[in-house]
């Protein structure tokens, strides 16, 4: 589980699809499914990582949101705080819909390979073509809603939540650093919702997961996620999205070659 926790932490915030990697790694190592308890622990670790890394931004946005209600504050940070909340709504609605129809029907290698390739190429095209120079506090609620719909599409396995959110943000005019930050900010409510959902399922179907191993998974996922955020932001401006696009295409082809469509 050490390897899976590190893989989850790294791929959760890079635009390369964590679901694809969590299929490939157990396949090559011959491991069974890690179980719901470990999923919850790893999500908790990645949530703590992004909260710690952007703690100052989160405090500032929280104050802006509160002051917009209590003191009538109106500025770019207020628009950004409300915009991030608005951008979360499509993913929650789509997530509930997928929960009703059964997301597992989409969690097959063919779907993950296809979305990895198609949306990877789309990310590369938008990153290359869009003249993006704006900051997160310089766009309006319509742009945040569009980013939210892009994030909702990422609930299809293989699309990559980070990748689709960056794609939407770049298409709405944000520069690379700003688009990545918005993707990381939006990970907070989405991951919180995922943890709440997994907690309910775990209570309903208790398992014999080892608490010590779960704690280790959370710590390792958190450390690797923190490192991934830090180095991704540092390298983004110089290398852009192309290395990740090439990687996604190769990954999708590998999934097709190994598993076919249904696996």
TrEMBL record:
<dbReference type="GO" id="GO:0050380">
    <property type="term" value="F:undecaprenyl-diphosphatase activity"/>
</dbReference>
<keyword id="KW-0472">Membrane</keyword>
<feature type="transmembrane region" description="Helical">
    <location>
        <begin position="182"/>
        <end position="204"/>
    </location>
</feature>
<comment type="similarity">
    <text>Belongs to the UppP family.</text>
</comment>
<feature type="transmembrane region" description="Helical">
    <location>
        <begin position="79"/>
        <end position="101"/>
    </location>
</feature>
<keyword id="KW-0133">Cell shape</keyword>
<keyword id="KW-0378">Hydrolase</keyword>
<dbReference type="GO" id="GO:0008360">
    <property type="term" value="P:regulation of cell shape"/>
</dbReference>
<dbReference type="GO" id="GO:0071555">
    <property type="term" value="P:cell wall organization"/>
</dbReference>
<keyword id="KW-1003">Cell membrane</keyword>
<feature type="transmembrane region" description="Helical">
    <location>
        <begin position="36"/>
        <end position="54"/>
    </location>
</feature>
<feature type="transmembrane region" description="Helical">
    <location>
        <begin position="108"/>
        <end position="126"/>
    </location>
</feature>
<dbReference type="GO" id="GO:0005886">
    <property type="term" value="C:plasma membrane"/>
</dbReference>
<keyword id="KW-0812">Transmembrane</keyword>
<feature type="transmembrane region" description="Helical">
    <location>
        <begin position="6"/>
        <end position="24"/>
    </location>
</feature>
<feature type="transmembrane region" description="Helical">
    <location>
        <begin position="245"/>
        <end position="262"/>
    </location>
</feature>
<dbReference type="Pfam" id="PF02673">
    <property type="entry name" value="BacA"/>
</dbReference>
<keyword id="KW-1133">Transmembrane helix</keyword>
<dbReference type="InterPro" id="IPR003824">
    <property type="entry name" value="UppP"/>
</dbReference>
<feature type="transmembrane region" description="Helical">
    <location>
        <begin position="210"/>
        <end position="233"/>
    </location>
</feature>
<comment type="function">
    <text>Catalyzes the dephosphorylation of undecaprenyl diphosphate (UPP). Confers resistance to bacitracin.</text>
</comment>
<dbReference type="GO" id="GO:0009252">
    <property type="term" value="P:peptidoglycan biosynthetic process"/>
</dbReference>
<dbReference type="GO" id="GO:0046677">
    <property type="term" value="P:response to antibiotic"/>
</dbReference>
<keyword id="KW-0961">Cell wall biogenesis/degradation</keyword>
<keyword id="KW-0046">Antibiotic resistance</keyword>
<keyword id="KW-0573">Peptidoglycan synthesis</keyword>
<protein>
    <recommendedName>
        <fullName>Undecaprenyl-diphosphatase</fullName>
        <ecNumber>3.6.1.27</ecNumber>
    </recommendedName>
</protein>
């Amino acid at each position: 589980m050490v390897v899976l926790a590190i893989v989850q932490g790294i791929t959760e915030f890079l635009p390369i699809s964590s679901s694809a990697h969590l299929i490939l790694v157990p396949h090559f190592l011959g491991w069974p499914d890690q179980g719901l308890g470990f999923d919850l622990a790893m999500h908790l670790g990645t949530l703590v990582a992004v909260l710690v890394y952007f703690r100052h931004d989160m405090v500032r946005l929280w104050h802006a949101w509160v002051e917009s209600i209590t003191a009538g504050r109106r500025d770019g940070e207020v628009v950004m705080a409300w915009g991030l909340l608005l951008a979360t709504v499509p993913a929650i609605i789509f997530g509930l819909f997928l929960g009703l129809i059964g997301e597992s029907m989409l969690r097959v290698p063919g779907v993950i390979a296809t979305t990895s390739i198609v949306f990877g190429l789309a990310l590369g095209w938008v990153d290359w073509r869009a003249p993006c120079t704006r900051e997160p506090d310089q766009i309006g609620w319509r742009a945040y809603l569009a980013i939210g719909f892009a994030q909702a599409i990422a609930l299809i396995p293989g699309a990559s939540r980070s990748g689709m959110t960056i794609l939407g943000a770049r298409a709405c005019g944000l520069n690379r650093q700003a688009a990545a930050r918005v993707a990381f900010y939006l990970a907070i409510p989405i991951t919180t919702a995922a943890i709440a959902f997994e907690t309910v399922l775990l209570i309903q179907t208790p398992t014999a997961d080892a608490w010590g191993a779960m704690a280790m998974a959370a710590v390792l996922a958190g450390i690797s996620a923190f490192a991934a955020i830090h180095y991704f932001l540092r390298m983004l401006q110089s290398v852009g999205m192309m290395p990740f696009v090439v990687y996604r295409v190769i990954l999708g082809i590998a999934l097709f070659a190994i598993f076919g469509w249904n696996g």
